[in-house]
Amino acid sequence: MSTIIFRTIAPLIVAIMLMFSVYVCLRGHNEPGGGFIGGLIAASALAIWGMAAGVETARKALWVDPLALAGAGVFAAALSGLASVFTGSPFMTSIWLYLDLGETSVPLSTPMIFDIGVYFVVLGTITSIALALQSGEES
Amino acid sequence: MELNAGIALVAIAPFIAALLAPLVQRFSAPLAGWLLALVPAAIFVFLLQFIGPVADGQIVATAIDWVPAYGLKLSFLIDGLSLTFALTISGVGALIVLYAPAYLKGHPHLGRFMGFMLAFMGAMLGLVLADSMLALFAFWELTSVTSFLLIGFDHSRQAARRAAIQALVITNVGGMALLVGAILVRQLSGSWEISALGSLAGEPLYGLVLACFLIAAFTKSAQVPFHFWLPNAMEAPTPVSAFLHSATMVQAGVYLLARLSPSLGGTAAWSGILLVFGGATLLWGALGALRQTDLKQMLAQTTIASLGLLVMLIGLGSETATAAVIVYFVAHAFYKAALFMVVGAIDHETGTRDITALGGLADRMPLTFIGAALAALSMFGLPFTLGFFAKEEMYAGLSDGPWQDIFALAVLVAGNALLGAVGLLVAIKPFLGAEVTTPKSAHEAPIAMLAGPLVLGAAGIVAAVMTDWLAHSVLEPGASAIMGAPVPSHLTLMINPASIALWLSVLTWGLAVLAYQQAATIRTLLRRVGSLLWTADQVFDAVMFGLIRFAGAVTRALHHGRLELYLVTVFAMLALALVLPLLALGGIDALLPLSDLGDWSARLAWPDLQLYEWAVALLAVVGLVAVLVADNRLVAIVSLGIQGTAVALIFLLFGAPDLAFTQFMVEVLSVVILALVMTRLRLDERDHRPFEDLLRDGTLALVCGAGVSLALMVVLSGTLDTKLSDFFTATSVPVAHGANIVNVILVDYRGFDTLGEISVVMGAGIAILALLRRKKAAPAKPSRAQKATS
To answer: Can you point out the beta strands (E) in B22-115?
Structure first.
């Protein structure tokens, strides 16, 4: 797996894929994309990183256990639903906030937080499976 | 009105006390019993004030809204019957709560024990005060659960655990029957309130309702053939037996029958069944008691007998029999609780409760002896005791009835005589006669353990001497509630030599003394007969064992561990689910009318596609064929990826970019993960399968594929309901601020579904990781687990 070409090019691919995954995740509300597909892209990127640099390096680069990312994702998604409690509306009613930055305005919303939660669940789950499988392969 | 709300508090206060009990025990250990006994004592005093109004024919009721949307109320009611029970429960309960810490002194889990006791008391009080059938059921089940905890309190012993489980299983069978009965009654009468019930005797479902309530009452009150759990429950510490198996838990069934007797009673089935089962239980229990030498077991068996007697009396249903139910219940609660506490004291002070190993304790334990003697007088039924009144009432009016009454009378006399003999045995044998050396040097029990027997023993006589008060304040209201009509009392302290009941009592005493003198002979005889019988206890074990074996067989059949067969099962079910509805609902016929094969060519028109669309379709087919012909697994996996990518392209070309996007990523990842799994499992590179397997898998694949295709075609051949799509298209931007409808549905419209789905994704991830780690620990035989789950 770890030919010199692959190892050289891998950081570049991984960086681009991760950037792209965030982009896809955030544009999802209006264009094709979303948290699920973004998470899949990011997970592929990390799987590639694991192949190229070894599982231990990939784990260290992640800082936290990927499964913890997944847990945080579910937590964030559930929490975004709870936010509506403060406006007195039912669970998961969306709240939108338009942030004016001079020329443009940035829409922030609870569905966005929810989608980011989905992103982390998919990313965390798939990555932890892929890394676990790879570490078994090495041993 | 404030007073009425207090009724609900009666049922709730013990639960609060139960929560506090461990703390009280920890911080005021020597006084804990006295402090905790204040709760039932306060309840007792609070309930006393209802005696006046209830005796005047008033009914006190209250209700708390429970689920207002369904019209459910937590309703409570005090009439003569529930007041008698509630006073007995709280009064006896106070003495037991006082007794228990002294009996279990130094036990590490005493605080927990007191909590269980108080919680049980709350459940029991709630049960007798409840007017709503559902509240009754809830409290009924609570008594089962708390008694399970109490019987199994000494959980390090296997016998205690078994007894606890047995009691729980048997009483819960009854609990389920009670729930069914309650729901049926609700359907028949339209109300959950027992007080709103009329007579159900003529209803079409009467038989079923009756059966449900009888099963509930018979299991709870240990009637033959469900009687065996009660003697086993003697594994519990003695205070538990003194409370649960005298005045409370086991009386719940009797209470239920008494409570429902105006609605269900008065039919031939009712009185016939109650008389037969009650009579059998009475004799079985009374003879069983004489078989035993363990004092506690003797008392347990007499409790079974007394419960049978009460059931019989309810079955008789006459005015005097009903009056006897109330008097006998109170008398029995007093003397049985007192005797259990006496036995506990003997056990505690001497170290044994075998009647043949005890004697001459009267000098060493004089106060205990007085308590025992007072209780036994009532059990024996001498004049000026409650037991005497109970006996007089039940004999009265039976001697000049039809043959059934005479027969019942004979059973009652025999049963009472045997019970009286046991009373003499328990109260006299250990205390009089020559002194016997016991495992522990005997001395008087502490005051907290003496209060119960003395107070209850004396109460059995004081209550009897206060005849008028007893008749007017307890007997008449109680019996009237059971009869559903006013019952006049004719209790009198005077002994009337002209009444036949008195002479029947004399006969009972004579027989009792005879049985007492011949106790040893009777015991040997009964044991010889008893050893030949196959007991219900063994049947229970056989049934439980059979259940476990059956469960094991089912589990092994379904959970065989061969993943290949799991997949086959899943896909076979999928095939059935797809094909059966198509055949049954005529879907295929509408699509391809088999009766009219003429114009098939017209129906299957050549699709009008662009060249690149043909190319993509061809790519999918090539990928598929490659999967089938590849004899290397890796090639097959990659080919499957090609096929999937072609499908993704089709999605892209036909206007579903989101779907295509996701499909691409899924295909890439599944190829990567499948390849990783392959390397992990150390499988052969080639996939060798015998021809039968190929045939089976191929057929399944074809049926599933054809099924999905046909189902899709059938669905698309009809007109689609676009209501939802229209709604999403119209509201996506203005309401949900998003132009990508797919994403808006996922994160907003159906966000709750997605939340569930991502939780499942994470759960599946955890499961897969667990599987992988397990493999790491034991890299033994290859399995297809990972393949199946990825």
So the answer is: 60-67, 72-78
Mutate which of B652, B665, B667 to test chain A, going by most A C-beta atoms within 10 A? B665
Measured in degrees and rounded to the nearest 5, phi and psi for residue B178 equal: -60, -40
Q: In the beta sheet, which residues pair with residue B74?
A: B64
Neighboring chain B residues of A94 at a CB cutoff of 8 Å: 736-737, 748
* Alpha-carbon span B595 to B445, nearest angstrom: 95
Which residues are paired to A101 by β-bridges? Answer: A104
Asked if pLDDT for residue B347 goes beyond 60, the answer is yes
Instruction: Name the more confident of B496 and B155.
Output: B155
> What are the CB-based long-range contacts (under 8 Å, 24+) for B555-563?
B563/B783, B563/B784, B563/B785, B563/B787, B563/B788
pLDDT in tens, B777-786: 555 444 444 4
* H-run or E-run covering A101: strand A96-101
Q: Where are the alpha helices (DSSP H) in B364-475?
A: 366-380, 386-395, 403-428, 447-465, 467-469
| Dihedral, CA of residue B772, residue B773, residue B777 and residue B781, to nearest 10 | -10
Helix (H, G, I), strand (E, B) or coil at A3: coil
Rounded to an integer, the average pLDDT of B13-25 is 88
Question: What length does chain A have?
Answer: 139
Q: C-alpha B665: how far from its chain's center?
A: 52
Locate the domains of chain B by residue range: 1-212, 327-517
Nearest chain B Cα to A33, which residue? Answer: B658
pTM: 0.73
Which helix (H) or strand (E) segment holds residue B768: the answer is helix B751-777
Looking at this predicted complex, what is its ipTM?
0.91
- B665 chain-A contacts, CB cut-off 8 A: 37, 40-41, 44
Q: Which residues of B633-648 are buried (b: 16+ CB within 10 A; e: fewer)?
A: beebbbbbbbbbbbbb
Bond from prior residue into B402 cis (ω within 30 degrees of 0): no
